[in-house]
Design a protein that fits this description.
Immunoglobulin-like, 4-stranded antiparallel β-sheet, 9 strands, elongated
């Protein structure tokens, strides 16, 4: 019967070693017999398990790297209270209000080339063009501040 034959094959050792007679110098192995079907099956199962584990690990690492590497930011200094607007060649448009210390940060932005505009009371005051964003980086774009003081005066 088939199940008896399979059970018998599974009970056999994967390989069998017979050494030379006891007491004689051991120069070689006289007999080395392998059951190639069982050995191949065992190696195939282990090989598939290892391949599956490595591929799952690889996909996780790749996904993490892609998530971190496909966005960037534009940041810098500008007069407190102003608005900074960015517009990409791919159609992305975002804006941020400059904080009381004179800093702004616009993120996450897709990788592209941007135009960065400083606006006050709805009017564009200054423009910087052709600002490229590349993998894993950001671009610092500073605008001139009155008397080199971007922060809002204390008490305002």
């Amino acid at each position: 019967m088939l199940h008896e034959r399979v059970a018998k094959q599974l009970a056999e050792p994967l390989f069998e070693l017979s050494l030379m007679k006891p007491g004689s110098p051991m120069k070689s192995i006289e007999h080395f017999e392998t059951n190639s079907h069982q050995r191949r099956a065992a190696l195939s199962v282990w090989g598939m398990a290892i391949a599956a584990a490595l591929s799952l690990y690889g996909m996780t690492a790749l996904t993490t790297a892609q998530a971190q590497g496909t966005t960037a930011s534009i940041f810098g200094q500008a007069p407190a209270g102003a608005t900074v607007t960015v517009h990409s060649t791919t159609g992305v448009r975002r804006h941020a209000t400059v904080d009381a210390k004179g800093h702004y940060l616009i993120k996450p932005l897709s990788l592209s080339v941007y135009t960065v505009m400083l606006e006050k009371d709805g009017k564009t005051i200054e423009t910087r063009s052709n600002i490229p964003l590349t993998v894993g980086g950001g671009a610092e774009v500073d605008f001139a501040c009155p008397n080199d003081q971007c922060a809002a005066p204390e008490g305002s």
